[in-house]
Specification:
4-stranded mixed beta sheet; alpha/beta; Immunoglobulin-like; binds copper (II) ion
Length: 148
């Protein structure tokens, strides 16, 4: 009994980090500190299943809306210029854009657990990338951060 209690006491501090979903933040910026414009900060974010992301626009002209999602995931679209929280309930890689600034490369990637949909993600991106006119290299670098 004593041994069991000691074991439980040792494991207890680990439990919250295993069970409690974390909230992450992505800023939707007109310009960041290094002068890059129309950028998600961070543009690539790795989270765990069930975590949430708080999207925070720097002004009224930005939002976050899903472009590519894993199978079974519901699409999301945050209101323009308003902070909103999205919960990620399906494992895989998500690509999202700022609606008015997609052509300027204002996109981000959120990887939830394993990138189980990587092939489908890349196939869809092949088509979607035609819509990005500026900052293409930056977007390519962001997508390259997805870990299989
Ligand atoms: Cu924007």
């Amino acid at each position: 009994m004593k041994r069991l209690l000691i074991t439980l006491a040792l494991l207890l501090p680990l439990i919250p980090s295993l069970l409690v979903a974390k909230e992450h933040q992505v800023k939707l910026l007109t310009a960041n500190a290094s002068g890059q414009t129309m950028i998600m900060d961070p543009a690539f974010l790795k989270i765990e299943l069930g975590d949430t992301v708080r999207f925070i626009p720097s002004d009224a002209s930005h939002n976050a809306q899903s472009l590519v999602s894993p199978k079974g995931a519901s699409a999301f679209s945050t209101p323009m210029g308003k902070t909103a929280v999205v919960e990620f309930k399906q494992e895989g890689a998500y690509l999202y854009k700022c609606l008015p600034h997609f052509a300027l490369g204002m996109v981000g990637v959120i990887q939830v657990g394993q990138a189980v949909n990587i092939d489908d993600f890349k196939a869809q991106w092949q088509t979607l990338q035609a819509g990005v006119v500026m900052n293409k290299d930056r977007v390519t670098a962001t997508i390259a951060k997805i870990q299989n």
